[in-house]
Design goal:
single chain, mainly alpha, about 0% strand
Length: about 475
């Protein structure tokens, strides 16, 4: 059996109970099957080692090696595929579209072709000095950077393929990983803010100092991790409350978790992340609303709101909190200059783009003298704009196709999730996926969440959640 066939093979056939009976079993009552455990391990590693970004590639290299090792059992042993069904067709389609641009940009082109590409004059002149201007060259201006970006993209795609094979309960286990890693990130962030033992407590040499970043190097990425953790808590709470009982301990734990993650979110200092918290809570309410008793809902909302206001008043007295509040003052944004330079660079290489991962040399070449400072521009701080620069018109066409496929999955999954008899956890997972993708898409307007392997893997999980569960539910033992 080939490697692809092994990965996409069916798991052992098990008797499938009714959806509501299987869903009512809380996800922590049974152990995850081997295939589910592998997906959990891959996601856990991605959330802890995938937050360094371009300026901290060391942990990403380690992460890629570890994920490759974890995928080996799926290729060599059928027993490790227990808990996995077939790879969903939309996952294959999306995976191919996602990898299409970086792969095609690395294909060598004859001199007559690449010499005619816009923005290549300096490169041609430089290569002519060493008599190499007649060599075959790819479309990307920095092949090594594009290849590194391709490697970093492959692993979220592989995770999406595997998550599309999971059952409803298997996907709930991934939400457990998200919450656990979010809590661990908060603990690490507290150590970072306290400088316990005189250490910085960061995994990276370059990070947002003075703010809670946890396993990420960028405070905005950490804010997204915490927002997604809140969404994941909503999925788990829905699974627990779906039996119709009150579960006061579950509700109390949920409120405590929301407050803890919300406080951590505030300490990241991410203005957009804090602003997206309200939208995130609306998605959580949408998950829980059918399970909450309507007459008690106002009590929960008023009580939670009063607690937040009271604690907020106390926290505003802390100097570290005042530093975060000061970030909301109306000052000139460096992002505006980066966007202007990026837009100018787009005009230099349109319509074919400069190559995935080439944002740094392109911004350095386009930086205006009146805004030059000791810092080095590493991102455009707008993922949509940066993709336009690096991928050009072909990239925008492919991105449009990807968005259309995802939107079709959203519509189909929302319709299916609201049918009679659909397990509440399945409905919550669909809302979770919509919330996650919305948060990352909106944050991409002013930052670059998809350039973090951690957040790229979470986006891949969300897309897989939109697909129908492929593996059957396990019968409660």
């Amino acid at each position: 059996m080939s490697g692809v066939q092994a990965i996409s093979g069916l798991s052992e056939t098990r008797r499938k109970p009714s959806g509501r009976t299987a869903d009512a079993l809380p996800p922590l009552r049974t152990r995850p099957l081997p295939g589910t455990a592998l997906c959990m391990a891959i996601l856990g590693l991605g959330l802890t080692l995938g937050g360094g970004g371009t300026v901290n590639p060391q942990t990403e290299m380690i992460l890629q090696v570890l994920i490759a090792l974890l995928l080996i059992p799926l290729l060599v042993s059928q027993s490790w595929q227990r808990g996995l069904g077939q790879v969903q067709a939309p996952a294959w389609l999306l995976g191919g579209l996602i990898l299409l641009i970086p792969v095609t940009q690395l294909i060598p082109l004859p001199p007559s072709v690449w010499h005619a590409l816009p923005g290549r004059t300096v490169e041609i002149q430089s290569l002519a000095l060493v008599q190499a201007d007649q060599s075959w060259m790819p479309l990307t201006m920095a092949p090594a950077r594009t290849f590194a970006s391709l490697l970093a993209t492959i692993f979220p795609v592989l995770l999406m393929l595997q998550v599309s094979r999971l059952s409803i309960r298997g996907r709930s286990w991934l939400c457990v990983v998200m919450v656990a890693c979010g809590l661990a990130s908060l603990v690490l962030g507290v150590l970072q803010l306290s400088h316990t033992g005189g250490f910085e407590w960061s995994l990276y040499s370059q990070f947002s100092e003075g703010f809670l970043v946890g396993f990420q190097a960028n405070r905005n990425a950490e804010a997204d991790i915490l927002l997604i953790g809140i969404l994941a808590m909503g999925v788990l709470a829905t699974s627990r409350l779906s039996d119709g009982r009150r579960h006061p301990i579950t509700l109390a734990a949920l409120l405590l978790g929301l407050f803890t993650f919300g406080l951590g979110l505030f300490m990241t200092g991410s203005r957009t992340g804090i602003g997206l918290a309200v939208l995130t809570l609306l998605f959580v309410v949408a998950m829980l609303w059918p399970m909450l008793r309507l007459r008690l809902a106002p009590v929960y909302l008023l009580g939670g709101g009063a607690a937040v206001i009271a604690m907020g008043g106390l926290l505003l007295q802390l100097q570290s909190v005042q530093k975060v509040v000061a970030r909301f003052s109306l000052t000139r944004e460096a992002r505006w200059d980066l966007w202007a330079d990026t837009w100018y660079s787009i005009g230099q290489v349109w319509p074919f783009g400069s190559g995935i991962g080439t944002i740094v040399p392109m911004l350095e070449a386009a930086e205006r003298l009146d805004i030059v400072d000791p810092t080095r521009p590493v991102r455009a701080h707008n993922d949509w704009l940066e993709w336009t620069l690096e991928a050009g018109l072909p990239g925008l066409i492919v991105l449009s196709l990807i968005i259309l496929v995802i939107l079709s999955l959203v519509v189909r999954s929302l319709i299916a999730a609201h049918r009679a008899g659909t397990p509440p956890s399945r409905r919550a997972q669909v809302i979770f996926a919509c919330g996650l993708l919305t948060v990352e898409a909106l944050h991409s307007i002013v930052d670059y969440p998809m350039r973090s392997m951690s957040l790229a893997m979470l986006a891949a999980v969300a897309v897989a959640f939109l697909m129908e569960p492929a593996a059957p539910q396990r019968h409660p033992q």
